Amino acid sequence: MDILQRFGLGIKKLRQERGLSQEKLAEIADLHRTYINLVESGKRNISLKNIYRLSKALGVSIHELFRNL
Structure pTM? Predict the structure, then answer.
């Protein structure tokens, strides 16, 4: 499993722990739902700007998003 897949699984886990759908997370983070799907499946190389948006939307630090890599 590569780093994009591991990062995506971490996002998915945090999203599910918070009871959020991909659509709701996308809305909170001001991103498109298909983008969230691509990140979670490891098919999108996410930018730092969007990592920041997701960390805020999930209520965690950027550091936390990288914790399990």
Answer: 0.93
pLDDT tens by residue, 25-46: 999 999 999 999 999 999 999 9
Q: How far is it, in rounded angstroms, from Cα 10 to Cα 16?
A: 10
Cα-based distances in Å from 58 to 14, 46, 62? 7, 16, 10
Integer Cα distance of 65 and 4 in angstroms: 12
Domain that holds residue 23: 3-65
Task: Specify the CATH number for the domain of residue 16.
Answer: 1.10.260.40
Write down the pLDDT at residue 69: 84
